[in-house]
Design a protein that fits this description.
With 342 residues, the chain is of the alpha/beta class. It contains eleven helices and eleven strands. The strands form three sheets. It has a six-stranded parallel beta sheet with strand order 3-2-1-4-5-6, with helices on both faces. A three-stranded antiparallel beta sheet has the order 9-10-11. The protein has a two-stranded antiparallel ribbon with strand order 7-8. Bound molecules: nicotinamide-adenine-dinucleotide and (2S)-2-hydroxybutanedioic acid. (2S)-2-hydroxybutanedioic acid binds next to α9.
Length: 342
């Protein structure tokens, strides 16, 4: 059973309301920030998953209407809306996966780090509630700057005594989705065949697509590698500029986040073949958090795909070394934020 967990079987999207196809809907998912630009289309996409029995939509405002609207779709998930801090705990009770896109998006001229001052506190309070109400859940952090908000979430969970590094994920799926799209376009490949791992982090040069690991195996000229890498790294900014003050990527992000939710649910359901890139606590490099491909299972991360980092091209090796200082600084900024609040 899959919705759009990978580019392998997207036709399931159309099958979710087909009565001949009824996998057991048994998982509960909460979206924190569900009335926002990402939250609404994300809620729509995951409402179509045949694996979900309950979909809890939380926001500080405007969420009841979204929930009422979505609840009329005839797919299995029961939709409930929760508004404001007094309803946050209930939105999280017994939840298997929590997705957090709460927070402000960029405007032209801003970096993701410029969002830190507002979003750090939003992620901290959201994750505190997760720790108190569903500490066993998979936690998907979308709010930027992801390079710092994931370390913030880890520290919050540690302070609450419930940190499980195997279940805390920074959502970098959009980088993979973009890499797949741009590589397929450039090389005239069928989209369904293309898979490009993206490692590092989720901002500027910390986003490192491993074109040498692209599937199917394709030859790129040095010029193509440079162009594609920069396009993937700047794709978020491309959208921010095109929206001209109206926010950042929401639709492609919702698609990517729905894929990551679906992968998590398949893993929780016992599928033994689920791999995704994600920004997680890691020992693959000297950095404490790092995005790479991981194997997902019932208990979260089951394994790291170490081989992706072996035999990198010279271009990738250099780019990997170049991203480390920036990524380290973002991690330290996140850790210091929680430390200071103590
Ligand atoms: P948005 O402003 O449209 O929506 C954010 C929502 O969060 C709003 O509905 C708002 O009411 C809600 N919110 C604010 N404070 C909250 C709180 N304390 N608790 C619960 N909800 C709260 O923004 P958006 O376009 O949906 O983007 C959300 C975040 O996702 C931004 O930080 C953006 O940078 C980030 N983002 C990340 C990726 C990624 O690849 N990881 C991609 C796109 C956007
Ligand atoms: C993205 O990559 O689209 C997001 O991180 C949003 C942004 O600010 O670029």
């Amino acid at each position: 059973a899959t919705l759009l967990a990978s580019n392998r079987r997207p036709e399931i999207l159309l099958r979710s309301s087909n009565h001949n196809f009824q996998p057991q809907a048994s998982f509960k998912v909460a979206v924190i920030g569900a009335a926002g630009g990402i939250g609404q289309p994300l809620a729509l996409l995951i409402k179509m998953s045949p694996l979900i029995s309950a979909l809890h939509l939380y926001d500080i405002a405007n969420v009841k209407g979204v929930a009422a609207d979505l609840s009329h779709c005839n797919t299995p998930a029961q939709v409930l809306g929760f508004t404001g801090p007094s309803e946050l705990a209930n939105s999280l009770k017994d939840v298997d996966v929590v997705v957090i896109p709460a927070g402000v998006p960029r405007k032209p001229g801003m970096t993701r780090d410029d969002l830190f001052n507002i979003n750090a506190g939003i992620v901290k309070s959201s994750v505190e509630a997760v720790a108190d109400n569903c500490p066993e859940a998979f936690i998907h952090i979308i709010s930027n700057p992801v390079n710092s908000t994931v370390p913030i979430a880890a520290e919050v969970l540690k302070k609450k005594g419930v940190y499980n590094p195997k279940k805390l994920f920074g959502v970098t799926t959009l980088d993979v989705v973009r890499a797949n799209t741009f590589v397929a376009e450039k090389k005239g490949l069928r989209l369904i065949d293309v898979d490009v791992p993206v490692i590092g982090g989720h901002a500027g040069i910390t986003i490192l697509p491993l074109l040498s690991r692209a599937k199917p195996s394709v030859k790129f000229s040095d010029e193509e590698i440079g162009e594609l890498t920069v396009r993937i790294q700047n794709a978020g900014t491309e959208v921010v500029e095109a929206k001209a003050g109206g926010g950042s990527a929401t639709l492609s992000m919702a698609y990517a986040a729905a894929r990551f939710v679906e992968s998590s649910l398949r893993a929780l359901d016992g599928d033994g073949d689920v791999y995704e890139c994600s920004y997680v606590q890691s020992e693959l490099t000297e950095l404490p958090f790092f995005a790479s491909r991981v194997k997902l299972g019932r208990k979260g991360i089951e394994a790291f795909v170490k081989s992706d980092l072996e035999g990198l091209s010279e271009y990738e090796e250099k780019a990997l070394e170049a991203l480390k200082p920036e990524l380290r600084a973002s991690i330290e900024k996140g850790l210091a934020f929680v430390e200071k609040q103590a």
